[in-house]
Design brief:
The protein contains four helices and ten strands; from the N terminus they run H-E-H-E-E-E-H-E-E-E-E-E-E-H. The protein has 189 residues and is of the alpha+beta class.
Length: 189
């Protein structure tokens, strides 16, 4: 009986830890109660928000609209037809899986030009960053930051690797997942 109890406690801890992990991510409803609509100022909506890997964008909209993820150049010019992904279901959830700036437009002609476009800058999970701002992407993939910022025309290298001499910076999600695995190994070995 004692052996069963001693194995049950770590299992209970494992279950609790593994159910806490998804709570760390945030869901952001684009446009809040106004949703994904013509005439919104989404740069104001993103102002003050910090988006991280693991968060999700939730787009709520009526028929006759789409949510298209596009490249910086297509975002700047409101060019449709070259989307990376597209959805028109009326309730689109986009998981932010990678750090960097992500660009979204409505693919219906004229809608992007009428305000249905949003860019979000996504930080690596667990990193401390300033809130997202809607800079102006240029055709070469760089982003010019808004006035008052000290970063202009930053273009991350596609093959850049973090400098490990600066220490390890892992996300809370990775830390908890690692803890779950460690507890699981201890319990069942």
């Amino acid at each position: 009986m004692a052996g069963l109890i001693s194995r049950s406690v770590p299992c209970a801890i494992l279950v609790v830890l593994c159910t806490v992990v998804p709570i760390l991510a945030k869901d952001y409803t684009v446009g809040d109660t106004s949703g994904w609509a013509i005439g919104m100022d989404y740069s104001t909506w993103t102002s003050g928000k910090t988006f991280s890997v693991g968060d999700s964008l939730v787009f709520n909209y009526g028929g006759g609209h789409t949510v298209d993820e596009v490249r910086a150049s297509d975002y700047s010019t409101c060019t449709t037809g070259n989307s990376i992904t597209s959805d028109s279901s009326g309730a689109t959830t986009i998981a932010l899986k990678t750090a960097g700036t992500h660009y979204f437009i409505c693919g219906v002609p004229g809608h992007c030009g009428s305000g249905m476009k949003v860019s979000v800058t996504v930080a690596a999970a667990g990193s401390s960053t300033s809130p997202s701002s809607s800079g102006t992407p240029s055709s070469d993939g760089t982003t010019t930051s808004p006035a008052g910022s000290n970063v202009t025309n930053y273009k991350p290298s596609s093959n850049s690797v973090p400098d490990s001499s600066l220490g390890i910076n892992i996300s809370p999600f990775v830390a908890l997942a690692g803890t779950c695995v460690a507890v699981f190994v201890m319990v069942f070995s």
